[in-house]
Amino acid sequence: MDPEIRPEGVHPEGVTPDEAGGVGTAGAPAGSGPSEPNPVYDEGGPGASAEPGGEDEYDHAPEGAALAEEDSMAASLLADLQRLQAEYVNYKKRVDRDRDLIRVGAVSSVVESLLPVLDDLYFARQAGDLDSGPFASIAEKLEGILERQGIVRVGEVGDEFDPNVHEAMMHVEAELPEGATTTTIVQVLQPGYKNGERLVRAARVSVADPA
To answer: 85-135, pLDDT tens digit by residue?
Structure first.
């Protein structure tokens, strides 16, 4: 019997195109398996990195925008720091000022309580009773302590009259020191005291005008 003649591409029953070494579906070489769809790459091409800082970064904010945001944050933090520094400096100034006021007030209060004793010492010295002896040493020590605390006695004979620290109790005619051209103290009735710029007590004095 003559061999059966089949159309081209038709194989004997039970024989697949692959086994026959033919061409697979859609013209693909036999044994190549199902065809794969063409790969689709994200913007940036093959190997593009989706992580910030990658070699081919494509899906993140532009570098300029990130730098602008960082600069804005840095400027805000700097402004906060400068404000805090200014507040601290002002606070320190207030504390220092209040500390000085408290110290001056405390010392002045002590001096006010000692005024009767200081008056007795002053007039005893004017009378010559403190030229020597144990009481002279005690008086010097007390006056030295007050001087170190900033206490200054005001009102001396021959001083120019100053209404800010002197209180004129009497206005008399008297001979003034040579060269005096203004109202001058000629007698101290009660000495005054200052604590720095703070007047503890005005000096009570007798004054005279130049001729």
So the answer is: 999 999 999 988 888 888 889 999 999 999 999 999 999 998 888 888 888
Structure tokens at 165: 């620290």
Q: Are 55 and 47 in contact (CB under 8 A)?
A: yes
- 52: Cβ–Cβ under 8 A, 6 or more apart, which residues? 60
Rg value, the chain, Cα: 54
Q: Positive or negative, the Cα torsion across 130, 131, 137, 142?
A: positive
Backbone angles phi, psi at 109, to 5 degrees: -65, -40
Task: Round to whole Å and give the CA distance between 122 and 167.
Answer: 18
Spacing of C-alpha 211 from chain mean position = 60
pLDDT digits (tens, 9 = 90+) for 162-202: 999 999 999 998 888 888 889 999 999 999 999 988 999 99
Strand partners, 195: 151, 198
